[in-house]
């Protein structure tokens, strides 16, 4: 063992050991460790809320005004890089929308799993594995996206890390902002977030050993991934469902509209209008209808759902080595 690793906490050593087994470069291993070790600083930087990033952004804009050619050169370089690798940012870090029932099944999966989801479920080139080691090890911690905002939504402790080495890595390095929970406690958090109209995302990341590692419960006002999606960076995959309305039962009260995080619903002239292109099939609106007029229907053109029972059927039964 590298003597320097003896200075690390056990969970960090396990992370590096697994990264070694996957052939990660030194830079990628360090990047992944920094992301999981300091998630709050990392997300602040990524979302542009960190003071240093704001300073550098202002400086870059000032230079762009002085030297307009910089802008074109940067765009050409970014385009060339994408063309050369074929990799988009969203391929490295993305979330799969899950209705509450399936998110509950995931946190209660109860067995180790090793499976690669097809692109029809998680439509990205990288980070599609679900490899759960110690799936009952669940840590809930303060949402880094909410922590980066001046006036965040509450409660803060709604992000969940599942399995090892991620759960212990986050807990051991963020003891004041994280705590271990049982699967039943995780279910209670999911149900409470659904009641608030928030969206469950199963997040995958190449730096998190190329696999699923967390369930986040997201609101459009705080979530960096939802902001990126709105600005054209396709970080979020549809659940594979679309909401539908029973027009005879619907009275157009609009109660569901305020709970839609994607702006897909609009009440007009006592009728509900659904903007299908915006709907991600999260189901947050369904339980908010006092007339039980809303439901989810399968929509294969938007991809297939991440179904936990199907994952268990296709799993090899043991973790990847």
Describe the structure.
With 321 residues, this protein is α+β, with helices and mostly antiparallel strands. The protein has two domains: 3-47 and 88-238 and 304-314, no CATH class; 241-298, Alpha-Beta Plaits, CATH 3.30.70. The protein has twelve helices and 13 strands. A seven-stranded mixed β-sheet has the order 6-4-5-8-7-1-9, with helices on both faces. Helix 1 runs antiparallel to helix 9 and helix 7 runs antiparallel to helix 10. The chain is globular, with a radius of gyration of 21 Å. Residues 317-321 have low confidence and may be disordered.
Largest sheet, spatial ordering of strands: 6-4-5-8-7-1-9
Number of helices in the DSSP assignment:
12
Q: How many strand units?
A: 13
Tell me the fraction of residues in β-strands, as a range. Answer: 15-25%
From the spread of the alpha carbons, the general shape counts as: globular
Tally of distinct domains: 2
Give the SSE string.
HHHHHHEHEEEHEHEHEEHEEEEEH
Mean pLDDT: 89
Q: What gap, in angstroms, lies between the N and C termini?
A: 18 Å
Instruction: Please estimate the helix content.
Output: 25-40%
């Amino acid at each position: 063992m590298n003597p320097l690793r003896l200075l690390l906490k056990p969970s960090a050593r396990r992370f590096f050991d697994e990264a070694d087994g996957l052939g990660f470069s030194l830079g990628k291993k360090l990047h992944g460790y920094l992301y999981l070790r300091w998630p709050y600083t990392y997300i602040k930087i990524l979302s542009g809320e960190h003071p240093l990033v704001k300073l550098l952004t202002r400086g870059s804009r000032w230079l762009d005004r002085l030297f307009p050619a910089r802008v074109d050169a940067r765009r050409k370089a970014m385009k060339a890089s994408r063309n050369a690798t074929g990799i988009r940012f969203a391929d490295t870090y993305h979330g799969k929308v899950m209705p509450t029932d399936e998110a509950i099944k995931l946190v209660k999966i109860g067995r180790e799993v090793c499976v690669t989801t097809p692109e029809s479920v998680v439509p990205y080139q990288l980070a599609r594995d679900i490899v759960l080691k110690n799936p009952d090890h669940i840590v809930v911690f303060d949402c880094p996206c909410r922590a980066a905002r001046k006036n965040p939504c509450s409660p803060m402790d709604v992000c969940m890390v599942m399995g090892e080495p991620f759960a212990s890595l986050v807990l051991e390095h963020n003891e004041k902002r994280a705590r271990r929970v049982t699967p039943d406690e995780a279910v209670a958090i999911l149900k409470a977030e659904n009641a608030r109209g928030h969206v469950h995302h199963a997040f995958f990341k190449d730096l998190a050993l190329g696999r699923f590692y967390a369930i986040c419960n997201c609101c459009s006002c705080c979530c960096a991934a939802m902001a990126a999606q709105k600005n054209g960076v396709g970080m979020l995959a549809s659940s594979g469902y679309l909401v539908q309305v029973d027009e005879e039962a619907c009275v157009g009260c609009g109660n569901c509209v305020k709970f839609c995080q994607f702006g897909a619903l609009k009440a007009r002239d006592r009728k509900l209008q659904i903007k299908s292109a915006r709907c991600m099939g999260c189901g947050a609106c369904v339980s908010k209808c006092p007339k039980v007029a809303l439901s989810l229907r399968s929509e294969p053109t938007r991809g297939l759902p991440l179904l936990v029972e199907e994952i268990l059927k296709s799993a090899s039964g043991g973790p990847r080595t």
